[in-house]
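Example with several molecule types.
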Amino acid sequence: MEPRAKGVLESSLYVDDLRAAAKFYGQFLGLEEVLREEGRHLFYRCGAGMLLLFLPDASCHPSHVRQQLIPPHGAHGPGHLAFRVDHDEIASWRQRLAEAQIPIESEVRWPNGARSLYFRDPAGNSIELATPDLWGIVD
Amino acid sequence: MEPRAKGVLESSLYVDDLRAAAKFYGQFLGLEEVLREEGRHLFYRCGAGMLLLFLPDASCHPSHVRQQLIPPHGAHGPGHLAFRVDHDEIASWRQRLAEAQIPIESEVRWPNGARSLYFRDPAGNSIELATPDLWGIVD
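Resulting structure tokens for the full complex:
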């Protein structure tokens, strides 16, 4: 049988300020910080995967672990990532966003009943909180 | 209790050619295509989440569903994403990459025993196949 990619283990976003990113992803979104390299990256655990935040002008240079190459990458411009939330949490997220003075850019009720809240991280990435039924995913 | 983001539901990468992307992510990696809008995006299911591929020069314009805004985004330059694979699949992935004439840019044995294969998608994004023990994640 042919092997098949089973899930996303690492998702990446690019940011311009690790301190502002830590406040947003760590304190506000409540992700668990796993690894930080000042001036280069900040990694979070999120469910069964990782969210990697990079400063693109640093990650565009190759790095190495035990003389093995970690290939370079680095994008500019706003990316997009969605976190999964439950339907009954939407109201409390809306309230938390207001308390943190993070403007909701859009709130969407999808034709299939799923719901999304959109806002921006401090770097301008488009962040979404979405219920997983948007994609027919149930727990 | 404060709400907390429970996992990544949508990860995004930016590409320059949806047809080449479909060959790579659909045929080669074996992801299930869920939605395609010619000239704009191509969405895949992958495990309990979605991988969204966008043409950034299209996704940078706002779109709407039932008059509700879907905020714009779009990055340029190579991004990074890792798929989870099992240890006993690494050898067959190496062989499949060779058969598809996709060069392995790097192969890494991590200090904790985890393994990674790195290569590029047709748009130049850094794609990794990694065993989840890299991040202490077990099934």
